[in-house]
Amino acid sequence: MSNDDQLVPAVTRATRVLEALVRTPNGSSLTELAECCALAKSTASNLLRTMVAEGLVSYDPHTRRYNLGPMLVEFGVAAITRTTAVNEARPFMERLAERTELACLAIQPMPDGHFIAIAKIESRKAIKITIGVGERFDRTAPLLHRLAWAWGTGTGPKNAAPDERTIARIRTQGFDVAWGEYRPELNVVGLPVFDRDGRPCLYITLLAMGADLTPEGVEQVAEYIVEAANSITTSSGGNVPADYPTVGNAAR
Are 88 and 204 contained in the same domain? Predict the structure, then answer.
């Protein structure tokens, strides 16, 4: 008997429904979900009725649309707090946020190539960064896209990859910076955390408005950024790539 023969079809269908709802922030109708998930309408209806009863899905009777349910928040928070890399990263995130007075965000790469923000330390600045936990970033998102490709986990066609000079620069310095690429006033610096195979499993980012993050400011924290990447990776059971910078030789 193959492993596929031992799978429970109803769980697979429910997972497809949740994945479809993740991609539709405004929710979906029964017909839309049935078509998207390749389900008979009656099957989708019964499945959704059960998921609503369990709190996995919510239903708005006025719009007749389904969306993600409240129980998923509890499940998500529990999953995040039990992720070793996030637990190990939090003290460094707090120190980075305190040292720079900037918002610090932990972002996790997902299997299909997109990214999800899973933890945040708020900025001490009067103007707050609105990007928060749960924010979804496309696989081509600036900085994240480059960091993924620099350590061999980028997705999509090869012609979407950063050029070799950019990849070499990122690998040499151990982090990357996006100057106004998300929106004109937002600057972001990001570093990778590596898993046991030496592949990025988490990205730690500092977010700032305008002059709150400058090239000079990045230079001042460059060694601490490299130290954070090395320390979080090691303490969470990961392996730092042999050519990743160490404190004292971080490129600036």
Answer: yes
